[in-house]
Amino acid sequence: MKEGQILKRIIKIIGIVLVALIIGMLTYLGDYYHADQTAHDALISDDQVNVRKEGNLTIFTPTAGQDETGFIFYPGGKVEDIAYAPLMRSLAEQGYSAVIVGMPFNLAVFNANGADKVLETMPEIEQWIMVGHSLGGAMAADYLAEHEDKVDGLALLGAYPNQSLAQSSHPVLSLYGSEDQIIDQQGFGEGWNKMPVNASYHEIAGGNHSGFGNYGAQAGDGTAAISSAEQQAITVAKIMEIWKGN
Hints:
The chain is of the alpha/beta class. The protein contains 7 helices and 8 strands, in the order ααβββαβαβαββαβα. Residues 71-232 form the Alpha/beta hydrolase fold-5 domain. The chain crosses the membrane at residues 12-30.
């Protein structure tokens, strides 16, 4: 076989491999958990909560006037952002603005500094608390670690920090379900050593990993003994214990 023919064959093989990789990547990124009907219903404004979209932000504000504290939410990996609308709406019903940051390809790692846009969009809020589920929680923790001067606390939902928060002066809350079979237990245990000494922890009895959102059962997760609505109500109550009135 001539040298030119060999080169053409090599180029052809490389092209086929690249196309296969691109197709595989697009298939992976396009396969994600979709929000259920309850989540879609939570996007409808009423006399208690106003819901609006601004670019990749879904913003929930109480109609009766908002507190000076607000919540910025980073969704879990490969979960549609609006799947967390019921949880954020519940925070708004308590009198707080709550904002879901939509992520490219539903992966917070591609927009770890997405909170910056929230701060720019809503300068009237004086204190922001980061909240994140799973991968979104890890990225929210990174944001706090790198922007102590911009945000004022963190709530981790079925998540743990990558970077050390041991020196953080802000309140940090960790919530996790007793039936969570998704979270990396080794990483979760190691994450405790990266938390501030005054961090708060709460295991939600009967809760699992996917119960923080409304996107159905996540493959590999444990079976919850409580509903998603119950798990989210406990989540909101625990968040309020720390930040209500602060």
